[in-house]
Structure formats: structure tokens, C-alpha cells
Here is the input.
Amino acid sequence: RLLGDETLRWTSGRTTLVDLALRTRRGDAFVVSDLDAPGWLERFTAQDPTLAPAGEQLVQGQLPVGPDRSKADGTAHAEALLDLGFPGWRERTVWRREALANGRTGALDLPGTTWRDRPAIDRGDGVYLAGDQVAAPGLLSEVSFNSALEAVSLALRGGSHRAARNHLDVKRA
Here is the structure.
């Protein structure tokens, strides 16, 4: 939106996000992963107890939903997983938040495409993109890191016409 360039938009994922503060109960799961449908719950205070007040646990979940599904569908999925991994969670809930995240996947290469099909880092006129959704190799944060290195390299060298022959080699940099 910032650049007014419609070519910077493409298909991405949607997910229901669930955050809970639960009163501590011995035996709660660390992670619940749905192997039949995409879904993930994690008790983050298992490895870092400072994330919640004493006697409470922080549980967060991501439940991807298709374009024809609603946030409520994702929430129902989360609740089914919570029932499995956190018995009595409803009665122990101190705080709860839910959201629907659109366009949250970052670099998503659909079948038949590669990272080279993503928007170019060099947009011309001294505009360079860096982030997790541009034409740079890697997965997740690696795309952001590699695109930032390339964008800086291009900017310092004055653009693609000179940078092409001095392309940043991230393996040797």
C-alpha cells in the first residue's frame, strides 16, 4: 500500500490466533499439534515462566483457516485441541484473546513458483524492498535477512545497473 504497487499483493494464509492465561495445573501439555488438520498450541511458560504471573500459564495457538472458513471455525478448532491438552481449561481461564490474521505467511511459494517469482528487491528509482515476501532465497526470517543484505548492497552501489556485476554473495559475505 505504501508504494501504491498492486504487484506487491498475492495469495497468503489466514489463521485464527488464540492467547490464554490459565491458572497452573500440573500435567498440562507443553505443545499440542493437530496431525489431522493444521493447528498448534504451545504453553510458552514451560520454558520461560516469567511470561505470566506466578501461578499462571501463557498458552498461545495458531489455527490456519481456509478462505471459506471463519475466525469462529478456527476458535472451535482451538477449543477442541485445548480440551485434549489442557483439561479444565475453561474453568482455569484468567484472560483470553482471539484474532484473525490475514496475509500472515510471509514468503509463500505456491506450486509451480519459486522465490524468484516474488516481487523484486530493486523496484527502480532508488526504491529497494526488504522483508519476508520478496525475491530472496530462504525460509521465514532468512528471506528478510537475505533481502536486507541485497537491498543494502544495491543501495550502496547505486542500484541494479552497477550491482548486477557486483552481486552480493551471501555465502561469502
In short: The longest strand covers residues 14-23. The chain has two domains: 14-102, 107-166. The two ends are 32 Å apart (CA to CA). Strands lie at 14-23, 31-33, 40-43, 56-64, 93-102, 122-124, 127-128.
